[in-house]
Amino acid sequence: MSERVIADFVGEFFLTDMDRDDPVQGRIVMSPKRLVLAADDHKVTIPTDDIFDIAVGHVPPEMRAFFSDSVTIAYREGNQRRMAVIEAESNTVDKFSTVLFKAHLNGQTALVQHPARRGGRVVDSPVTKARLAVDGKTLSFSGPDTDFSIQLATVTDFEKETRALDGEDRPALSVSHVPGTTTLVTVVSLPSERVMNLLGRYFRLEYSDLVEDLADVSLSDEEVEVLVAIYSAGEGVDPLSVVSGDASQTTMVLNGLQEKELVADGDAGVVLTPKGRVVVNSRLEEVNT
After folding, report:
1. What does this protein do (predicted)?
2. Which pTM was predicted?
3. Which of 41, 51, 110, 171 is spaced 20 to 30 A from 287 at the CA atom?
């Protein structure tokens, strides 16, 4: 490959059209324009622009006996949809995943509204153009009229929707994140549905880890009540003043929530952590459905 190489490692891979049921060991090489998977009897070249989905850690059920630390790539070949599952050591997979997302997202021109909401209130922020850059687990947006970043670890929710941006209805992601102690909602739209889908996958990387961590956290009704009260009260309000019941008992509950990393001490008092906000969002969804 005479192009600039951005990834080069040895691992195992499986392709949907291979005439065998188990993966092969081979070399995985990637440039900004293409991904090449090469083994003794198999070689496939996948143009970057043909990749429409990337799933980190997700393995199709029929392949779970062979893969653990993996990346699954979905791509188009003519009118057909194909899939490649790639496995390597855990740190190699992490680095390769970042390279994959960078190859698709870096340099994209985005339409952004930041913030569209602040602390639950609609903000009349203008829609501006910004250049997107991926650095580790941070998305940066920079342009003549805007300059901000979103760390994946601060994302508490996101959803795909259609927004009127720059005079047109466009697919967009509405991203809730907590860079400090206040929840912001940022709206992001990219030029194509394919890249929008990959951006959603990128946001899901850290969010999925948060949700997975919460699977092992058990909460009493009293703890959930305190979390929702903190959320409803907003910044600068003492939870003891809005939670009914004994103050000493509420303080004990707060201490337990802090140990579970669901609340933290902010400049204006007790605030929800990103993990705590995911719990509240989930509970509110249950109530509203």
Report:
1. Involved in taxis signal transduction.
2. 0.76
3. 171
